Amino acid sequence: MNQFQGTFKRFETKFLINEEQYRLLMESMKGSLNIDEYGVTSICSIYFDTPDYRLIRNSLEKPVYKEKLRLRSYGTPAEGDKVFVELKKKYQGIVYKRRERMELSEAEHYLYDYRPAKKKTQITREIDWFLRFYDNLVPSMYVSYSRIAMLGDKCPGLRITFDKNILWRKEELYLECGSFGKPLLEDGQRLMEIKVPEAMPIWLVRHLDELEIYPVSFSKYGNAYLQSQLQKEEKTRPDQMIKGEMRYA
Prior knowledge:
Layout: E1 7-18, H1 19-28, E2 33-49, H2 54-60, E3 65-74, E4 82-91, E5 94-103, H3 104-112, H4 122-134, E6 138-152, E7 159-169, E8 182-183, E9 189-196, H5 202-210, H6 220-236, E10 241-242, E11 245-246
Antiparallel strand pairs: 1-5, 1-9, 2-3, 2-6, 3-4, 4-5, 6-7, 7-8, 7-9, 10-11
């Protein structure tokens, strides 16, 4: 097992790919990357925001600096299982992540009830400051997905992840409720993320170019929020046709 890592600093680039591109890319990377020790992993997250979604609305405006707070588990946790409280920041294209491992009940008391963490660390102090600054953070969105992660064989620090079956919901916002919700991607799509400490390897850039795979701006929480807003608008929009007749305002 890998030793727990609490801090990260890296560049992250995202791509939306189809199944054919995924298959060809996996073939082309044989010998250069290996699937990590966990194989296919189920990742579940609760995102925290203000009641008016201040954090994600600001993030969608693509500022130079943005940040988010989430509670994450690998698989659906039960009482006593370990989960991660994560503070993620992005500044000028560089991603900084801080995370602290806690038991599920402690993490929920910490984020849902604002009870102090049992163990004070530099990371919990940063999260404490974040909670005080935004003052009224509440659980706002559940997001889950299946992930395959690959690690660079000859390129230390290179990590590529492929996510599919991304689901989101705005109710039952507890990790222990399990993975269900509305799909975020179209059928056959995967979200690929390339994570590197510095520049992307030239051989990888060539593979992407040959397969016509290009970067996109994509946030799971951000796109789930946009979908929820669109669905909200559709529910409040008056019907235009009733039994074949036009309804006039």
